[in-house]
Design a protein that fits this description.
Blueprint lengths: L2 H4 L5 H20 L6 H8 L3 H8 L2 H13 L11 H17 L1 H12 L5 H23 L7 H18 L6 H12 L1 H5 L2
Helix pairs in contact: 2-3, 3-4, 5-7, 5-8, 6-8, 6-9, 6-10, 8-9, 9-10
């Protein structure tokens, strides 16, 4: 179990986490990744370096924790009235965010500072929660829905592979093709 999982943010711990995360984001924008150090972050956050080492272990784990927080969705996915439109809009937005330079940097940070896989699992859970919401709305409208894992396997997984290893040609049309492949292209022709 990593250090950050043992700490339950609340009170002072939450304030320290917020200050440190804010310091990391500010410093990344000001001085860049290569100049970032734990003492620099600690100074900006008004904590001691030992606080950061105790909580996060090292700079890479801290960057990973910040990245996971930045990858957290802001809210529920939009409701456009039907499964195909909801899932397509979500997939296009997800791909746009993940394929952006900052999204790719957050993904790398999440994976590099994640020795136990917890942060990657959290990012996967974010996507699954968004898909669950889309599928639940579709089920309430009596639409046939695939399972969450099926959507993860046919839409999210290929996008993440491409973002990480073959990032060229990633656009909204690619996201739409994945959703059409999952839901069946024939249904799209009738709309």
């Amino acid at each position: 179990m990593s250090r950050k999982q043992m700490v339950r943010p609340g009170g002072r711990s939450a304030r320290v986490q917020a200050a440190v995360h804010s310091a990391v984001r500010e410093l990344l924008a000001e001085v860049g990744r290569d100049a970032l150090t734990v003492p620099l972050v600690a100074q900006r956050a008004a904590v001691t370096p030992s606080t950061i080492y105790r909580r996060w272990g090292d700079l890479q784990e801290l960057l990973s924790d910040v990245a996971v927080e930045r990858l957290r969705p802001d809210g529920a996915p939009e409701d456009h009235g039907d499964l195909r439109t909801d899932l397509t809009a979500w997939a296009e937005q997800f791909l746009d965010e993940m394929a952006s330079p900052s999204g790719r940097a957050y993904i790398r940070d999440t994976l590099l500072g994640d020795p136990d896989g917890g942060n990657a699992g959290q990012c996967s859970a974010y996507a699954a929660e968004q898909i669950d919401a889309i599928l639940a709305r579709a089920a309430e409208r009596d639409e046939d829905t695939p399972g969450t894992e099926t959507v993860m396997d046919h839409v999210v997984a290929p996008m993440m592979y491409r973002v990480l290893f073959r990032p060229t040609g990633l656009d909204a049309a690619y996201a739409r093709r994945l959703v059409s492949g999952l839901l069946g292209a024939g249904e799209e022709d009738g709309r």
